Amino acid sequence: MANEPDNIIKTAIVEDIRTIRDGLATLLDFTEGFTLTGSYRSMEEAFVKIPGNVPDVLLSDIGLPGIDGIEGTRQLHEKFPEMTILMITVYDDDERIFDALCAGATGYLLKRTPPAKLLENIREAVSGGAPMSPEVANRVIKLFREVRPPERVDYDLTPHETRLLKLIVEGHNYTTAAEQLRVSYNTIKFHMRHIYEKLQVHSKSEAVSLALKNRIV
User: Fold this and answer.
1) Under a CB-based contact definition with an 8 Å cutoff, are residues 109 and 121 in contact?
2) Hey, which of 27, 39, 127, 165 would disulfide with 173, CB 3.0 to 4.6 Å?
3) Is the full-model pTM beyond 0.70?
4) pLDDT, tens digit (0-9, with 9 covering 90-100), for 138-174
């Protein structure tokens, strides 16, 4: 591959349907800039094999035999908070979307997502974004507008930090947030570290979930 090894996105898949699993595996392993570290039929298999070769991005189905994708995401996110987890599923109902995001999923994509768009979504997630299929994004916005706690929680964020967090919640990655705020990429990273400390979270998906649930933005 033309890319340097450090620039290659390591990916893995958890999918019980063989044809879908093999299709995704072929797409990821034969696209420049990507490499496949594992292809698993169940979360139980992933739990055993992922620790030996942790990917940058894990694509996981929800409707798996045994431990489902949401519970699997919760456990994997606790053990490997640096690993980005994207749900790729046929389900687009409110409950599963909400549960997946709260479990630590960074993005939520439908299986009918075209291959080129899927690759774009993975790159977006690695860059700090939270990719979602358009119809899912609309449901998420509607869902979190309706499900509100009675009082707003104050985490002592500055106005600038609140504006940045709002951009991240809206789906911006660090690069596009930097463009919106007219600052450098490193400035965004600096402020996000302070936001994580104030919210007492360790990842973008946790920050987004907490911001929405506690009406921070």
Assistant:
1) yes
2) 127
3) no
4) 777 666 656 555 455 668 899 899 999 999 988 888 8
